Amino acid sequence: MPPAESKNTPINPSRRRFLLGGLGVTGALIIGWGLMPPRQRLDPDYPFPAQEGEVRLNGWIKLGPDGTVTVAMPQCEMGQGVYTALPMLVAEELDVPLSSVTLERAPIDKIFGNVAAIQDGLPFHPDGAGTFKDAVIWLTGKTARELGLMITGGSSSVKDAWGPMREAGATARAMLVTASAKEWGVQPAQCRTENGMVFHGEKKASYAELAARAVHSTPDNIRLKDPKDFRLIGKPQPRRDSAAKVNGTAVFGLDPRPEGLLYAAVKMSPTIGGTVRKVDGDAVKGMPGVVRVVDFSGAAPGMAGVAVIAASLWQARKATDALPVDWDPGPNASLSTDGVFRELSSQLDSDAGFTYHQSGEPDPGRTAVKQLSAEYRAPFLAHATMEPVNCTAQVKDGKVTLWASTQVPSIAADTAARVAGVNRDDVTVNVTYIGGGLGRRLEVEMIAQGVAIAAQAGGKPVQVIWSREQDIAHDFFRPAALARFSASLDNAGNVVAYENRIASGAIAHQVLARTFGLIGAGPDKTTAEGAFDMPYEFAHQKIAHVTVPTPVPIGYWRSVGHSHNAFFKESFVDELAHAAGREPVEFRRSLLQRHPRHLAVLDTAIAKAGKPAPGRAHGVALHPSFGSIVAQVVEVSVEGTEIRVHKVTCVIDCGLPVNPNIIAQQMESGVVFGLSAALFGEVTIKDGMVEQKNFHDYPVLRMNQVPHVETIVMKSAEPPQGVGEPGTPPIAPAVANAVFALTGKRLRSLPLRL
């Protein structure tokens, strides 16, 4: 497990000045800033900490006296395999064995900020091109480099690291070659590298021997490898974190045991938006192990509640259960799921929404002979990660130390500093393994809560652990959504008009408010992603979204808007195929003539799936997300009212596959996660309260229900794209389409029920 995040002394504090400070003063500054080159991502503001004998070659890499290469790891490992994939990028360019690479948590620094995740949030259609789009993407990337937000999410880890980590490896290799060439009196181009050594004829030197001299060398010709010369990238590699997870040495959020550790259990408002009127702490003061009762309301927006600090978790929970709290239910005491969907429907009736994409005329009229319309819906969903919400914090002597399974260490540090009233440089974040992130650990309310509670513990560390019931009831849910489609077909079965309007809350609006204190406004790509950016070549199409604010806390759930929009879109495309009298696969093929990569993925999936067994049917879905293209063919049977998925053939084109092993694992994971939601997932609200409590009424797929998943990874020369999430969106529509093929029943609501 990589060591902790650590605070460091700035190399050059002036670099930290944010260049946009005068935006409101003069447009000249904006233009001047825009013309400046983007912030580099090799040399940090804060140094990569080096132990005795280690040599820093740049902000990402240092060499040890035994030849060990230590790589800074800004991303969090939550099962997606970045502790294997990202070191491969450095090892490839540095020409060292992967086994010689160790990881260390990167310090919180702007060079480690995730640029790709922020750029991917721009609502541009993937088929669009032009100077304006290029300029906005460039400017957004430049801004992201200045913000320096360290985020693991959006299936962006490899995509974002593909440039800077390879550049770090190539630069370090060039420095080592330059140092050896100078010593040998030859040209760098006459030297070669292999397995941590530099060679020239009979001469050779190890990287460890050269490191001290290399740090002073200035190479003049740094080149990234041509993919045809890759020795490591593209080859299956075993996961480097597996052994620690098997033998129990991996440190997750619940594992840290700092000296003097206390525990805290929480009790939060049962109604959404409720507050604490009164808490009687004296009622539990005499219970075994109880140290203190803390009202942490106000630490995180909309998260009212109390905690009991005790010597053990069991004692804390028993006291919390017995703690009398008088709750004010707040303004949402009558909130219900039915009410939410009535509001979504009403807004779709009256509001045209924001148009994310339009081509041609949405209603050509004259050639239409058949009209088709449908309404689809998707419920709120919880993340239900296997590791419950937790945070360990210590507030002592004006400093904060965190042990946290977080996807956003830089935001966690800012949050801790705000709650404790200290400078950010006085916050140390120890990032642990995450027992399932799925977007839940992009939130930081557990950090705010943990720091607020620990601040009342007299300098002792406190581990805050939610129960599963608290976890489900107080999640930041996948938004409920309603989608309406209308289409017109001519007498040849061609779709001459296609319109899709969706209504839901906007995650970005809520996140901006609760995390950064900003007003959320404008388009939020996640609301319409997977709908407006589809590859299908309808000549006349319009896709719009109506934002309906909701008091229900919503957040980023694995695959975000794609998770429900894929179900809506791929199910309706199936409906169009049947209305046109066409076979669904052939119908899709006819709409992908200008999208050869999508067509190849679809064709491969159909060919690999073969024929369904007797009594079963195939369902198909094709969906691009996070830069990758995925097609899934599912083999389904129906027994009474039970839908059973036996096999999933999954094909992905994710650009150049860095580690096919991990890609296959992530496709399997995405299928199982998505299938749980497709068959069972639903959060309902009554009287302002979440009705689900635990896995008995919020079930996930059991082992005996998991289908066989066969994954085919397409070869590609394109840059790597997302892998962690694209396996989830296609599974629900593929199953729904198979059920229709078997029963003739079109299921337009999730979860799928007969």
From TrEMBL:
Domain of life per record: Bacteria
Keywords, in A-Z order: Membrane, Transmembrane, Transmembrane helix
Gene Ontology molecular functions: oxidoreductase activity
Transmembrane segments: 18-36
Pfam families in the cross-refs: MoCoBD_1, MoCoBD_2
SUPFAM superfamilies: Molybdenum cofactor-binding domain
Database matches in PROSITE patterns: TAT
InterPro entries noted in UniProt: Ald_Oxase/Xan_DH_a/b, AldOxase/xan_DH_MoCoBD1, AldOxase/xan_DH_MoCoBD2, AldOxase/xan_DH_Mopterin-bd_sf, N-heterocyclic_Hydroxylase, OxRdtase_Mopterin-bd_su_IorB, TAT_signal
All copies of domain Aldehyde oxidase/xanthine dehydrogenase a/b hammerhead, residue ranges: 247-331
Annotated SMART domains: Ald_Xan_dh_C (SM01008)
Protein name per its UniProtKB record: Acylaldehyde oxidase
Species lineage: Bacteria, Pseudomonadati, Pseudomonadota, Betaproteobacteria, Burkholderiales
